Amino acid sequence: MTTKITLRCDIFCNVIDNYGDIGVCWRLARQLANEHGLAVRLWVDDLSSLVKLCPEVVVTDEKQKCRGVEVCLWSKSFPDIQPAGLVIEAFACKLPQSYIEAMAAQEKKSIWINLEYLSAEAWVESHHKLPSPHSTLPLTKYFFFPGFTRRTGGLLLERNLLTQRDAFQNDVEQQQVFWRSIGMKMPSPEILKVSLFAYENSALHGLFDVWASGAQPLLCLVPEDRILPQVGQYFGDTASCIGKSYSRGNLRVRVLPFVEQERYDELLWACDVNFVRGEDSFVRAQWAGKPFIWQIYPQHDEVHLKKLQAFLMLYSDQLSRPASQAVDGLWRVWNPLIGSGHAVSMKIGQAWLSFVAARGELDKHAQHWARQLAENNLALNLLDFCVEIGRMRALEKEGQ
Ligand code: TRH
User: Does 3.40.50.2000 match the CATH number of domain 161-373?
Assistant: First the structure.
């Protein structure tokens, strides 16, 4: 009788801010556990951010099982534990020294991966899978870069996501359930539905102005977060605006509570255009197969602008010139590339109108783009890479 050995995996997540770091780690953890049968422990140093994505998590429990994953609080006093066979440090977070030493002491070394941030820049391809030997210990860490091309690690995509998306988009009943769940009736087809998940943005009021004075009625769904004070300010409401609705001209805004991660996809699927930000919602908007606008996470030295430019080039490559200019124009005013105030308001009006005029082509492109990206699945690539490393090590051993 053979005994099946389950590969154990430790994922380390240091929450820097917002929800992107934990968003990516939580998604990867569930996928490795539930789709690939790994025994996954997720070490996270801030459980309160995970609770927002998964309200089942108990913020006071330092160790708990949730959705197939063992969730552990990563506190300063790290326990002495046996390292897993696969160790993933997310976004170059610093692993506990005792854990690194325990990895070095093992005869059969763990596979140690640094899962990097997503970028469409060209250098990513040549850095993907590069080894980085430890300066003093007999350990090697490997860089694993998510990305948009075949020579990168690809993107996180759950096994049935695109089938579920298509089922949702083709089934009025499912859509009605979704709208009821956010306390609304399903809007009539002539209303343009837009979701808006964003950081503070000086272009927001100009965007609201163009929507309010537009010819087409527009419903804007704003999930609760950093943009809310600006939303309230536009409508002259200084109180907390979660759950409230506001109207001006042809614009109606509804502020939604933060929904759990699995349900956020439905919001993207139910809308015609999505504004997203950071890393994970940016990827989910691509899986939604709808036109979207990305507000990139701002970094020092404006590194983010290079990333934005790199993605725009890749994404627009197969678009006609007018459609590509429309995407470029709106994305640039939505990101802090040019001044603020009146000039931005003027620009965003024009930029929005060009974007909407290109919607037919952008819709088709978004569907095609999602299908293309789906061929390069991050979790599968990561597990293949582990096998590759295993083979490499076996050969090295034979050669000794
Ligand atoms: O929250 P973000 O801005 O996250 C980040 C972090 O700032 C991080 O430090 C930075 O490195 C990274 O961006 C680039 O945006 P992001 O990545 O889109 O993460 C949001 C997560 O929240 C994503 O997993 C989707 C989820 N979400 C919900 O679960 N429910 C909701 O209602 C909404 C609006 C989002």
Answer: yes
